[in-house]
Amino acid sequence: MKTTIKKWGINAEGIGYLHHKPVFIKGALPDEVVSFTLEKEMPRYSIGHLQSILKESPRRRKSPCAYADQCDGCALMHVDYKGQCLMKMQILKQTLAKYAGYRGKINPIIKNESVLGYRNSCKMPVKQVDGKIRLGMYKAESNTFVSIPRCIVHQKSLEQTRQMLESIFNTYSMQAYDFQTESGLRTVVIKEFEEKIQVILVTGQDTLDAEMLKEISQLEQVVSIWQSIKTDNSVDIYGKEMRLLYGQKTMELHLDDLVLQLLPRSFFQLNTRQAYRLYHYVKDLIQPCDVLVEAYSGIGAMSLMLAKKAKKVIGIEYIEDAVQNANENAQRNHLKHVSFVCEDAGKALRDMKETIDALVVDPPRAGLDALMKEVILKKQPNQIVYVSCNPSTLAKDLKQLQEVYQIKSVQPFDMFSQTQHVESVVLMAKKEVK
Ligand SMILES: C[S@@+](CC[C@H](N)C(=O)[O-])C[C@H]1O[C@@H](n2cnc3c(N)ncnc32)[C@H](O)[C@@H]1O
């Protein structure tokens, strides 16, 4: 079968049509003519399997990653950077129009200066492949493990450390996790900030080899090793127990004149440089006010960057370690008017006594929950800045918030180059009552 690809799908598939029904074809790009076989037929769409490209898009390139065909991590490796930015703009525009009815201006995407080697952290599952320990990933929506010998979106030293760790694990005959014996290595998490590296080994009930730990501690830039014991099947990557095996407890990171600390469980944006630009962008949007709240505040980086914009700043976050970091970060930077509460964002906002002038929300991919939206529409802060990493949930949330708010600006950022993901900042102000 043959079709011309008309547009992008949200997961970077090309969308063509067969008898007026959309066909999603992974690997095909807009404007290409492709031949495909039908993989799955649903009532409203079909899934096609790309066979050959009969007319190639000028945006297609040879993938710079040797593992792109096996790894699902970066859906746009075969698209040049101009094409990637066009894809993100189109997806955002299409999604905001479809779900939020917004057809206004979208600013040009703020590009990533380092389109490779930008990721400051990785979380990689571990498996035994041909008797050797391998770090890799699971293919999307499947249990298929793919070992990744080299990843080019990781920061260079992060990636070097990852490869050396894999080799050390094999030297010491470390085993991948076994659910029967509840022992072995499950996941390896590595984070790098300012040329310092934190290693977190998620394992069963293992006592780790002292010589192996010594060798890891001697790797260049490694400043701490943690072990997290996890024997359950919960979605949380870490177990309840987190032991510091070597080095310093927190990682440090500087943004302008702020010093920020991070514990292993605390979230920080994956692309440090773009996060910094995004925080500055949000800072410029916020009008000076009395009370500013940031919901989903992580270690408080954005709240602290926004400190000068309000007489009182309150951050809300439900991970205890992140809140501890955030409050210590506020103290350490002598920002007495900034504080953080550990609570579900919607509940904490509901229970807040203060009149909120400006609200910044930076939720996870699932977007705002029902309580959060209900509370926002009830409390009606004058200004809202919505930072989103998922256009679909952003658009659905905006649809509801537009009962009271008007969208003033939409600014996409490319935080995750080579992938289909797009970060957006939407400024909203209360509609004038006529
Ligand atoms: C996208 S991150 C944003 C973090 C922060 N704004 C930053 O720039 O580093 C989302 C944060 O929301 C937190 N979170 C997720 N669901 C939450 C909830 N229901 N209530 C409070 N915090 C939540 C996560 O732990 C994570 O730190």
From TrEMBL:
InterPro entries membership? MeTrfase_TrmA_AS, NA-bd_OB-fold, SAM-dependent_MTases_sf, U5_MeTrfase_fam
Pfam families listed in its UniProt record:
tRNA_U5-meth_tr (PF05958)
The top EC class, named as a word, is transferase
Which Gene Ontology molecular-function terms are recorded?
Answer: rRNA (uridine-C5-)-methyltransferase activity
Record-listed E.C. numbers:
2.1.1.-, 2.1.1.189
Amino-acid positions noted as binding S-adenosyl-L-methionine in the UniProt annotation, renumbered to this chain: Q269, Y296, E317, D362
Does the keyword field hold Metal-binding? no
Location of the active site: C389
SUPFAM superfamilies according to UniProt: Nucleic acid-binding proteins, S-adenosyl-L-methionine-dependent methyltransferases
Which keywords describe this protein according to UniProt? Methyltransferase, S-adenosyl-L-methionine, Transferase
Q: What PANTHER family does its record include?
A: RNA M5U METHYLTRANSFERASE (PTHR11061), TRNA (URACIL(54)-C(5))-METHYLTRANSFERASE (PTHR11061:SF30)
Q: Which family does it belong to?
A: Belongs to the class I-like SAM-binding methyltransferase superfamily. RNA M5U methyltransferase family.
Protein name as catalogued: RNA methyltransferase
According to its UniProt entry, this protein's organism is Faecalicoccus pleomorphus
